[in-house]
Structures are given as C-alpha cells and as structure tokens.
Amino acid sequence: MRPPTIVLAWLLATALLVPPGAAAAPAAEGRAWPGEEMPLPLAVRTPQDLAVKAAAEKQYLIFNLLAGGKLAWDGGDYATAAAKWEALLRVPGLDPDVEKVIRPLAHDARARAGGQATAGAPGAGSSSASPAGVAPSAAPRAPAPLATVSGNISGGGGQGPGGAVIWLKRASGETPHPAPAHGKVVSQRSKTFVPHVLVVPVGSKVSFKNEDPIFHNIFSLSKPNEFDTGLYKQGATYTQTFKRPGVVQLLCNIHSSMLGFVYVVDTPWYAQAEASGAFTIKGVPPGEYEVSVWHEAATKPTTTHLTVGADGVHGLALRVAGDRRAPQFLPDKSGKPRQSHLGY
Looking at the domain assignment, is residue 202 inside a domain? Predict the structure, then answer.
C-alpha cells in the first residue's frame, strides 16, 4: 500500500529538501520551516533523475500548500489559507484523502475571507509558473453561496421550547473549528442566572457578573468544564474559558435555588431558540449535516440528518422531549444534595 501523499511530502521536505548545514527559516512557535522558495538540491544526470526531481517538486508543492494553508488558518489569515488550499486542490492527481480533508476547509476559509480571493495570492490570478511536473489547470469554480437554516422547535415539557440549543455538524468530513465568542456575560440577578441558558462555541470566555447586593459563589461539577469562582461580591466579575463541548450546569454554593446552564458547541453553525421555539442559523455552506437540539428538560439531545441546498432550509420542524424531571435538591460542591432554604 502506497504511503499517503502527506507522508511523502513530509519525508521529502525533511530528508531531501533541506541541504546539509542549511538553516531553516524562522517559523511561528519555534517550528522549523524549510521555506516555500527553498531550491531542491537534486542532481539531474539521467532522464530518471529528471523524473525523480519533477516528482519531488510536485510533492514539495503539495506539502507547502497544505501546511502553509494550515499555518495561515491558525494565524487567522483566512484569505491566504483559502488561496493556498484552492491552489492545492488544482494540483493534478492529488491524493483523494487529501482532497476530502482540504476541500471543505478551503470553502470555509474562503467564506471567512469574505468570498473574495486576495490579489497575487496562489489561486487568485497569480501568474507564477507551475513547478516541474505540474500542469496548469483552470481556475476553481466560485464557492456556492452560504445558506440559512431556520425553523421552529416544539416540546420541552412544561417549560416550553425556549432556550433550546440547535447546532449543525458535517455528516461526513471535518466540521471547521469555530471562532470563540466575545463579550458573553451571565449575570447573577435577584438570585437567578441571566440568561438562564447561554450557548457559546469552544474556546469562549464567559464573564459571571454579580449584580446582587450579596455574595455569590458560582460553580459547576460538569466535567470536563468544571470550575469554581469562589466568593465574590456585588459588582465583581469572574471569567471562565470553556474549552470542551457539552452542557455545563451552573450552581451557587450559597443559594441552593440557583440553576442555570452554559452549552458549549464545537461548530460555527449554532443558534438558540426564542421563547416561541423559532431559530435561525446563518452562513451555512450547502451540504449534508447532522442537526442536534439540546434542552434542559430532555434526557438527551435530539439528532437528525439534514440536507442544506443552495437556497437553505426554511420551516424546519424539530422537537425535543420533556421527559427529564427537575431535580428536587441541587448538589453542593461535593455533589451531595442539599435542601433549599429561605433568607440570604
């Protein structure tokens, strides 16, 4: 079985492409980077040598476009990431496994870059000559416009569907990593959490602000997102970063009646239902998805398949159960149930 293209590219970049004693160009985070313009020190004495050099240059091109696009993506330069990955997808004979991974990422990078190619970047009308062994190909087709998915949630038992969290993940292939949300706040007001449910993407920082003239001690036992603010007074704020997807139950160690939720999603396509159950998710690339709905009154999320066309999906009807009973006693920091109390 032949090695995957990415393995061949890495071997060529590390074993063939860096001459003995040559210094690698500086790279982010201290990683050695051979450099996109580094010449290939391969002797050409026979037709076989020329064929090997052409194959090496092609694999070197693949490696640089693949890895260079990822470095640009990680640095938030989505236009450059899109340009490099679009150029990679035009390389003839590209490994299907590489194409399967990169095509949706290139589409998402182009969408995040505003849908317009960067002048002079690879794949954006650049007149750079193709490396040996790689024939020029036609310009890529413009990505399909992003769509909107909207509909209505029903169910939720006596609480109704309001606050339900809806999110989409690709049915096949990789769902792009979402950008963290900013400015998200959960206030403690009149011994309640406001909002009662907050949805955020992974990596988001949420501020817990005490607006009551009393102390609060907010905590969660929901692994792996557990945290403890400790005591803090009116006007004080505690900030927590949520790094893993899933539900986070919010409690107060002083006031046993307080209950709220943060739901952390690992996708850029999500929404929260209004009190009526209505929701809208914008910026969805056409494709096949799994759509899921979480509600605090349901024992588990509802998941179903969804096809999103160029015109989007409208009037989508989803339902959540209301089979989860509200806890009679909320736990303390040790996880033991405690009775509600009056007064402070």
Answer: yes
